[in-house]
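Q: Got a minute? One more chain.
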Amino acid sequence: MKSRTKARSLALQVLYEVDLSGHMPGEVFEEHLNTTHLEDELLEFSRQLIFGVYPIMQALDSFIAQHAPEWPLDQVAVIDRNIIRMALWEFAVEGCTPIKVAINEAIELAKMFGSDSSPRFVNGVLGSLAARQNEINVAFGPKPDKQ
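A: Always. Here it is, folded:
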C-alpha cells in the first residue's frame, strides 16, 4: 500500500468510528496513533483529512445527496459515505489532490474496506461531483491562507 494511501486509510478509520460512535475525532485519532506507524508528514496529512472533513460533514453530505438521489444518505454504507466525503474534500474543498488521483484513491479504499459494490458506487458519485468541482469550491469559500 502506498504511503498516502496508508494515511487516507488511517483518516478513514477515524472518520468511520466518529460517524458510528459520535466519539470526538481528536480522541479517536490519538488512539489510532498508538497502533499506527506513519512518518510525521503522513500523520499530518491524515490529521488534515480528518479535521478538514469533520467540521463540514453535513455540508459535504448535501452535495453527495444531490448525486446519489436513489440512495438516501442515511442508507449509504457508513464506509462509502466517509470515503466520498474525504475524496470530495481533497479535490473540491481543499484542492490539494488532482481529481483523478482523489477518485482513484477513493476507489482503492472502497475495494479495501467496502462491499463488492462500493468501488462502483464511489466512482459513480465522485464522477458526478467532479463535474461540479468549481461550484463546490466556491460554496466552501476561500481558505484562510489562500485569501
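A: The two ends are 35 Å apart (CA to CA).
Q: Perfect, thanks.
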